Amino acid sequence: MCGISCGLTLIREAFNAWIPTYLVDVHGLSAGRAAQYSSLFPFVGGVSTLAAGFASDRVGRGNRIAVAAPCLLLCSASLLALASTSRSLSGSVWAIIGVAFWLLGPYSLLAGAVALDFGGRRGSATAAGLIDTAGYLGAVLSGFAVGRIVETSGWPSAFRALAAVAAATLIAALAYGRRHARS
Asked: What is the pTM for the complete model shown?
């Protein structure tokens, strides 16, 4: 679960920090216009958290990974689309919206519903703390790693690297789901 939190937070914080810069660098937007487009990320994320919460309540305790897994696959695909649509502002914006929708719903489940499932009555606060702590590691890595990749290899490489993080997070989610199903 901590690996999932680290990966999802890394991607989320990378988008919070770097999308305005990306829109200015690649699409030549003014800082104000880039900020306006960037605000779509948290807005769509809010819609996503509601959808993920609704779906998670329907699948029930212990099956929340069933909600997260397809979202992580589609998040990875959206990141790959963003890596390849750098010439089109509308394509980039739609890919950013896709990342927001497929990323932030599963992210919202971690420190709440999943921590309750994982920690139970007596350990849910500890589970939430451990999950969040792993997320902070991802947040630290997002600033340094994404900036370094952009400097050395460009934006498409950074988005491909984030797609790889999403895919690795999917693998961790599937491993957790499989382990949880056995117990």
From this structure: 0.89
Q: Which residue has the tokens 């599937």?
A: 174
One digit per residue, pLDDT tens: the chain, 183 residues? 788 888 999 999 999 999 999 999 999 999 999 999 999 999 999 999 999 888 888 886 667 777 888 999 999 999 999 999 878 999 999 999 999 999 998 888 776 766 666 666 787 787 677 777 777 888 888 888 999 999 999 999 999 999 999 999 999 888 887 776 666
Please state the domain extents for the chain.
2-182
- What is 2-182's CATH number? 1.20.1250.20
- Residue-wise burial string across 82-121, b where 16 or more C-beta atoms lie within 10 A, e elsewhere: bbebbeebeebbbbbbbbbbbbbbbbbbbbebbbbbbbee
Q: How far apart are CA 143 and CA 147, in angstroms?
A: 6
Residue 41 CB partners (closer than 8 Å, separation 6+): 15, 16, 19, 96, 97, 99, 100
Q: Which residues contact 61 (CB under 8 A, 6 or more apart)?
A: 117
User: What is the C-alpha separation between 154 and 94, in angstroms, rounded?
Assistant: 20
